[in-house]
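Render this sequence as a predicted structure.
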Amino acid sequence: MLKRFLTVIALLGFVLCAAAEESEKVFVPLKGIVVISPGFRPGDISVTDRGVISAELIANDQIRITGLSVGKSDLHVTAGSVSKLYTVTVNDNVREVFNSLRKDLDSVPEVEISINGNRVVLKGEVSSIDGWETLLKVLPTYGSSVTDLTVFRPAPEIMLSLKKLFEKAGFRIVQDTTDLSPGSLSLQSEKNTLILQGSVYCEEDMKSIQQLISTQDWISLDGKDKSKPVRFLNRVVIKPTLLDVGAVFVGVRQAETSAVGANLVKGGVRIAQGFNFSTIFSGGTNQSYNLGADAATILNLMAESGCKRFHRAGHLSFMSNESNEYKVLHEGGTLKVRVYGGAGGTGTLNDVPYGFIMRVKGGLIGSDQVKLDVQIEISTPALQENNDYDLKQSKVFTTIVAKLGETVAIGGMRNMIEESSGPSGIPFLRKVPGLNWVCAENTEAFNDDQVLLLIYPQVAGRTPPLKMPPSAETANTLEESGKTNKQRTEEANEKKGFWDRWF
């Protein structure tokens, strides 16, 4: 008698506790199965009417409910102090499911609900994120009695917002997918999938795309998050890009610096970090300064200011971000130096390069920007009293970040050239092609010079447009810069008259 009394009390307590909780509705077709997930691992599963349903744990947080007969039963799931109450309805009437589903999805008008045989069928395109979340929350409670054929298609304003986000990050969103240049992307929505295709220049662009997509709470990056209505399909590839890094020497006399600086500003050239031709390179500075124009524009503006002492040192071509090794440009010569390994040995001849040496590595960090580690060396052998040679060097090590097609000015070589110069020029360097233009000078004239090196990175084969048309006087400046002193002298003599050449 006592045992029966305690059982009634326990059942009454269970009913009272269940009534105090807000129940969640679950519909199960007769002889059908529905799987629910309370969000925690149940420690106890209680059913008020075991003749209507049966419930069993099938996974860590999943319960399988089977409809045994038409009717209703409460299902109470607990785990310690956490509990959840379900009101399970087993029916054999599809019309009841239809009516109930219409009420639950009243806030999602895009969904069309119909009856097909003994099943309820959902069709339509849901365009709002809130509507899709409601659909995902309601459907699991109806189990196999409902066939879902709905898809999510983002509303135009959602896609427009995503497009603006990409454009703000520096990408170009286009409609035509037949010819996608690097940095141009196409956004397309197909059923529950967002497809992004195109090509970019570097790994940093790919990371930027992933970060942009991860900010959208309606897109699943890996397609595994069922709470997010759209799966992301990334068809963007990194396009191998050949870079070309060129170098031009510029000799600027002190008297020309003010005119050069003023002419650059007048020509609309952005000069970063307060660049000043009059003072920045007066000593052995080791800095780089971005000049917001291509090399041809800079040279033309300098030539119009009276500064015409240019020489192209050459250029390097290499694949962007291909490796961590430096690519080398060497314009000069090589000394044969005997190195002795031990007593009585005859030694071995080693090659020691001298002249102008430029080493570059790095590549694109965006669709129009590069980051390059640059090492510049100008060296000259100096004859010693013992007939040996000492290799005098001036080096610049710097990292530049610049836009493609724009110019970077590098200094830090003037002191070495001044200290090594003599009345007839720098030994060895005055005979090195590419350096003789600046080294074969007398000391008095050379002391008034500042030596700059202009670096201009660009994509190989892509010629940037001139920001200003060259004048007739300076149109051939870049071509003239590639001539040797001998060629310049011969051409100058040809232009002289007979009496000028002889007298």
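Summary. Confidence is low (pLDDT under 50) at residues 418-429, 441-447. The two ends are 142 Å apart (CA to CA).
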